[in-house]
């Protein structure tokens, strides 16, 4: 009996080894949950993407570690989580447009599938397979920014009969930049070399447009973006050392600006603002920079 069982045991062990090799070599993140949502296994790719060691995750509830908040930072209740829904309704849940969270507090966009595990007809856990789609989203956003920029130029060409009017283009640019990032307002400043100042060329906030505004290099979000030749993001404008008085009085809570570069030479800056607490993330700022890269040469 024991001699006959040996080949079966070796076959079982061989199958387990193959499964382990597959899990360890898979590029997607894969982890298993028991009925209470605690990790039963985690492959190296899943742990690496989350910034953990595999051993740190085994036996622990993963929702508070990987999926505790929504993309906007609001708490993600376990009762609302599609991953846990598989444990309740026994259905396969495919989700995109959400984020998982790393140990360092940053997040990354994911798409995932949560599949229930059944044993003798009873749901005993779930397997989750996910992938980091940040690169894909960046490519999509880049295409979106370029398409938006070309639409702006096309609109202007149609409206002006092909004659580029800088003021009209600037108005279109600030309107599209505001809409592109879902901001409250946007402003475009252009460099006046004779006065050595940045002057407003486009603005879609009537209260700010009525003010006599000009910026020195390094002053305000747009002035600093122009001076540095790189993106500037301010999440708490009221506590920021370079804030300008008119920005404070208007109630800007957060802002982002990118330089308008032509042949690596800054000629102005394009900024967006929020009057409510708002986080301008890396992907949004990159989108703004890509958009600005298309319209900068046209303005110049």
Topology order in helix (H) and strand (E) letters: HEEHHHHEEEHHEEHHEHEEH
Biggest β-sheet, characterized? 5 strands, antiparallel
- Quote the average pLDDT: 86
| Strand line-up in the sheet with most strands | 2-1-5-4-3
Total helices: the number is 11
Ranges where pLDDT stays below 50 over 5 or more residues in a row are: 11-16
Structural category is alpha+beta
Explain what the structure shows.
By secondary structure, the chain is of the alpha+beta class. The chain has 11 helices and 10 strands. The strands form 2 sheets. A 5-stranded antiparallel beta sheet has the order 2-1-5-4-3, sandwiched between helices. Strands 7-6-10-9-8 form a 5-stranded antiparallel beta sheet, sandwiched between helices. Helix 6 packs antiparallel against helix 7 (166-181), helix 6 runs parallel beside helix 11 and helix 7 (166-181) runs antiparallel to helix 11 (282-299).
How do the strands and helices of this protein lay out in sequence?
Blueprint: H1 2-25, E1 29-34, E2 39-42, H2 44-50, H3 54-57, H4 63-66, H5 82-89, E3 93-101, E4 107-119, E5 122-132, H6 134-160, H7 166-181, E6 185-192, E7 197-203, H8 206-209, H9 220-228, E8 232-234, H10 245-250, E9 254-262, E10 265-274, H11 282-299
Antiparallel strand pairs: 1-2, 1-5, 3-4, 4-5, 6-7, 6-10, 8-9, 9-10
Helix pairs in contact: 6-7, 6-11, 7-11
